[in-house]
Amino acid sequence: MEDLEFSILNAISKHHKLALDFAFSCDEKLFSNPQAKIVAKAILDYVKLYKSKPTRRVLLERYVTNKDFCAAIDAFYDKADEEEYLEEDFQYDVSQLKQKYGESRLEAIQERMNQGGLEDVSGTISALEREIGAIKAANGQKAYDRKVARDYIEEFRNLYIQKSKNPDLGKGILTGYSFLDYVKNGLRPADLIIIAGETGSGKSTFMNNLAIQIWMQQNTVETPKDSFKPGYNVAYFSLEMPYEDCFRRTMARLADVQEYGIRDAKLGRKEATGLSKACKFIKDYPYEFDIIDVPRGFSVEQLEIMFEEIKTGYVPDVIFLDYMGLMENISDDDDWLSLGKLAGKIHEFARVHSIPVVTAVQLNRIKPDQRSDTNKAVGLHRIGRSGNIADHATLIIQIESRQDEDTHDDFIYHIIKNRYGQSGKFHNIWKNFNKCSIIDKPYDAEAAESWSSSEDISGDISNILEIT
Which positions ≥6 away from 277 have C-beta within 8 Å? Predict the structure, then answer.
């Protein structure tokens, strides 16, 4: 832990006022050292909750089940007990910490440019906005936006005109599922997306397909190496199946071959050729698809530690947790209240790190004869007895399970919560679980929603919206 970061932690662990000032104006993102970040999160979470600085004993008791957290806390306090801190140095030290953080984010922007990010204009703009927003927040710039409508109207007009000329402007990370991308307009930093389904409904397969499509974007295994378009880095935490099984499922989806054919090494010539293309694509593709096999009971605190380790090699754009019900030794059936608290912790992780997180949760059971009644089979009431789970989610997707689901080729999902748009909608796409694939059925939003005219006014939009 470097001296500057230790000094800040030493200050907020010993001075009540400094702890409050720092907790409500900064956060642990300012710390680059993984151990410092762990200690900062532990202290700041306590300060925000109790409005008081914690002691070593309190923190050790709060994280008693997490050996890594406790080891980091003990090591910090051992050193802090030997060193005093002058309160007068605090403002200067914090300004230096913010300066270092800003420099690191600017380096990230430069790296994006060096990687050819300008080829993907909307993706580059989104990345730049994230980095600049992080720098502004770190330097204490206001975290809210206030304008009277009269002052904003010119900016609104210009944004509309720009959007009319570039439809991709302002989109988040697209999933490759056209209906979902229309409803959500892409995943955003701090999103918590929950996929809800019954046992065997395809939650993990759907998550895996989402992850692959986000990773690949407009590329395919047929795309030549020198023609790759921008993609995204994906960190896929698997709690449900071992690494080899999860990787085999991913390969089946990429190669469009039977999973058991890979398992038993019984593919024919055509299928083996497809598998070869998938292998070559993975070797050549510059974006990471990182499968992390973690045990059941994996905690958000362990996720924090592993996330910092991952960032030493690459920076994830989206995190998948497969799935929430297997985390922190919580049973879907027995402890919905604890699942609600866990959803809050995962959402806080997403907010702190400004990254979208996708996970899944089990639906509570209904009687077989209720499956044909949409009012009983679909909705937030199926997300257990704890409303907290849904409260923390940005978007909830429910997979429909029909009474004779195995006889259907289509896969139906419902949007049962959408914090930033309409819910209560459904769309059916195609499934082939033998090949671990769930394939998009294109959604024509303009035709379905009846909000768009076929008349092309793009060339005259500036004059139509003239307000001077």
Answer: 221, 222, 255
Q: What is the CATH number of domain 178-447?
A: 3.40.50.300
Q: pLDDT at residue 289 above 70?
A: yes
Least confident of 125-134, 305-314, 374-383: 125-134
User: How many CA atoms lie within 13 Å of 161's alpha carbon, on the beta-carbon side?
Assistant: 15
What distance in Å separates the CA atoms of residue 48 and residue 341, rounded to the nearest whole number?
17
Cα 68 from Cα 53, distance rounded (Å): 21
Q: What is the mean pLDDT of the chain?
A: 85
| Position 115 pLDDT exceeds 70 | no
**318, 355 contact by CB (below 8 A):** yes
- Give the percent of the chain with pLDDT over 70: 87
| Beta partners for residue 426, in sequence order | 414
pLDDT tens-place string over residues 148-190: 788 778 878 777 877 777 777 778 899 999 999 999 999 998 8
Please state, in angstroms and rounded to a whole number, the distance separating the CA atoms of residues 461 and 190: 34
Indicate the pLDDT class of residue 143, thresholds 50, 70 and 90. Answer: very low
Share of the chain above pLDDT 90, in %: 42
Rounded Cα distance between 224 and 85, Å, is 58
Amino acid at 179: F
